[in-house]
Amino acid sequence: MRYRHCSLLVAAAVITVAVLSCRSDAVAQVSAQPAQAAKPRPQAVQTAKPAQTPAAQAAVPAAAAVQPQLLGQYGDWGAYMATPGGKKVCFALAKPASSQTNPANRPRDPSYMFVSSRPAEKVKDEVSIIIGYGFKPNSDATIDLGGTNFAMYTQNDGAWIKNAAEETRLVDSMRKGADLVVKGTSARGTQSADTYSLKGLSQALDRIGQECR
Description:
Layout: E1 16-20, E2 27-31, E3 69-74, E4 77-82, E5 89-94, E6 98-102, E7 112-118, E8 123-130, E9 141-145, E10 148-155, E11 158-161, H1 167-176, E12 179-185, E13 191-197, H2 201-211
């Protein structure tokens, strides 16, 4: 299993995202501006955030302040690019169209979904989530897309596809789908269900594919 354990700290209006990656003892810290949270996946990632557009954040590996650049907004998905340490990183980002918790109205930080590419690491279309709370230890999250479930490995407030071999199939299905639901359980036992619109995702992925070949 190729897991990257990352913890992301999200503040408010102006956000700072600190990402600690344990893949090959790489540690990354990224600061971002007026946007929201970012998230990477289980192998070697980092996250940053852009300014402009309501859904602007990134998964960026580097040990320096990085300002992601908005490449374009496509439906509910933004396409971003950053060059931490001179290495190009691209990602598509969205926030949920709707969210529910059980018990109802439990407080949470904002949640986001990312699809990231890092050419220097030969990583393409990596799906990750920032859930807005600390996951229940040793629990899985799930993505429900058209009745097909994909298990997600969780660490702190982040989640990544558990079986990397399923990622290509998931992304292909996301390109064609209308929406998906991310489900998880917090350390306090709160269950959440976040519905993400997939409108514009295919175009956003095409755009970041042009930047991060």
